Automatic annotation (TrEMBL):
This is Transcription termination/antitermination protein NusA. The lineage of its organism: Bacteria, Pseudomonadati, Bacteroidota, Flavobacteriia, Flavobacteriales. It comes from the Bacteria. Monomer. Binds directly to the core enzyme of the DNA-dependent RNA polymerase and to nascent RNA. One of its GO terms (molecular function) is DNA-binding transcription factor activity. Signal peptide: none annotated. It is found in: Cytoplasm. Residues 285-347 form the NusA-like second KH domain. Keywords: Cytoplasm, RNA-binding, Transcription, Transcription antitermination, Transcription regulation, Transcription termination.
Amino acid sequence: MENLALIESFSEFKDDKSIDRVTLMAILEDVFRNALKKKYGSDDNFDIIINPDKGDMEIWRNRVVVADGEVEDENSEISLSAARKIEPDFEVGEDVSEEVKLIDLGRRAILALRQNLISKIHEHDSTNLYKHFKDLIGEIYTAEVHHVRPRVVILVDDDGNEIVLPKEKQIPSDFFRKGDNVKGIIEGVELKGNKPQIIMSRTSEKFLEKLFEQEIPEIFDGLITIRKVVRIPGEKAKVAVDSYDDRIDPVGACVGMKGSRIHGIVRELGNENIDVINYTSNNQLFITRALSPAKVSSIKIDEDKKRAEVYLKLEEVSKAIGRGGHNIKLAGLLSGYELDVIREGSFAEEDDVELTEFSDEIDGWVIDEFAKIGLDTARSILKQNVEDLVRRTDLEEETILEVMRILKEEFDN
């Protein structure tokens, strides 16, 4: 053939394992037919014969012989004198097949052909890549850190595919260096132009669920079912599990002897605290279990409003709420109820005052910090140790001492 560069182009791809023979032939024919349309206005009367094994091809133009001066459509008709230059014995009405040389298309057209061919192959690869990772959404995937940027980590897998791990999809404690292997879940695939962007997540509940499937054989085998997963990435998670086999203890199987089974999952998630809970359809019992490690005295459920009043002894309140309010928030998400903590017992002194009553003297965000750990009355705070309050809240010691001074004055007057 006249243009070696073009033939080399399609020889580059004939051994590429990512594209099959039939698809390659279809792409090549499409590229050449587009070139013929630009050159001749139509490709209707052309046959294209491709031989991918040899990296070769032929183009034939088919026309009918008409008398000189009677050619109306140059694409489908050829004059008798022009036909006899190809073969001297042609007669009017016969079919003529003439080979079109690549050089006839022009140098500019040949360069465009090569570029179009490469573009079509890449487009095919992108389509395949999109479909491949679309099927992997929701599955665990491992890739290597290629580049760390402020808002995103760029990963590359064994096949050289680029995967992005955005900052908001990273666990707060995550710290990556180039060359590190990173495990996450394929959360989505987006098309950016013609190029697919593969998005990984380490904060998804599905990632934790898949880690359980990977690490706990009984879950993988279907003997234990994960009913629901809720988490605050890097801080705390709750996983409700169930088994249809009464002989299996789902919580014990997931945690393992002395936490041996769950330890690897906790470590993968940056020491995220994971509570594994026995699922039950009894809503009161499920809420009680969800609020672990706190011991609940009683629960009053309003099904219409999907709210539950949880009655707790004073010493159990902070356990139920947890640091930063994480425990009660996750318990609510897991159970599907909005949970209101109601204190009972010795704290209910008649002269106690709600903390919100001091909003003129204490900033709202400070009141909210105390409420997160279950302290929303004056006496409930005054009974606490200052060092404990510093540890359990995001407040400075100076702020806590000032709050205690204000509250103490209320009872001293």
